[in-house]
Every structure is written in C-alpha cells, then in structure tokens.
Amino acid sequence: MDAAVQVAREPQSPPAVEVGNDLAERFGWLPCHLSLQIPIVDFTVGDLIRLGKDSIVETGCPSTSDIPVRVNGLLVAWSEFEVIGNRLALRITELA
Q: For FRET with 29, which of 6, 51, 60, 89 sits at 20 to 30 Å CA-CA?
C-alpha cells in the first residue's frame, strides 16, 4: 500500500510531444490568419481617404527593424522584408 501511495505522490512529467513533421502531418490542414503589424507615422483618416494607386506611405520603423508576425493574434515570430526577384518576401529572424 505504501508503495502505491508513494508512486501516486511522485510528480509525473507530461508525455513528450515530438515537434516536427508529426505535428505538421496532424495539424497542417488547419487554417490560420497570419498578420504583420507595421507602425505608420502620423497617419490620419484624411491620409486614408486620399490613398490611391502609386501612393507611398512612410512607416514608423527603420528599414532594419524587425516586424512582429502574429498568427490568429498570437505573436509567433519576428521578421524582416526581403525582395526575391519581383516578389516581396518575409524572412523569419527570431521565433517568439
């Protein structure tokens, strides 16, 4: 009886979850919303109304600044923009 009580009182660690392909295979099909938040300097409703083709909006962060990446509102990484050919890409620089 004492041995059973001792085993019940010992802290048990949660089962190890293998990160990698197993999680991607099980949950890879779930949709999510990825968003980037870029601060804009002194942007007003008037500026928004005047936006049009070829408009340029100045950001509030230097070109070397990391941009937060959120998935479903949760911060998951920091990133930077990169141009690859004629496409704008996002390079993950740090996981949150």
A: 89
Amino acid identity of residue 7, one-letter, is: V
Per the CB < 8 A criterion, the answer to whether 33 and 71 are in contact is yes
| Ordered per-residue pLDDT tens for the chain, 96 residues | 555 555 556 565 555 555 556 888 888 889 999 998 888 888 899 999 999 999 998 887 777 788 999 999 999 999 998 889 999 899 999 998
CATH number for the domain whose boundaries are 33-96: 2.30.330.10
Cβ atoms of 58 and 41 closer than 8 Å: yes
Q: Where are the domains of the chain?
A: 33-96
Length of the chain, in residues: 96
Could you write out the three-class secondary structure of 69-93? EEECCEEEEEEEEEEECCEEEEEEE
pTM metric for this prediction: 0.61
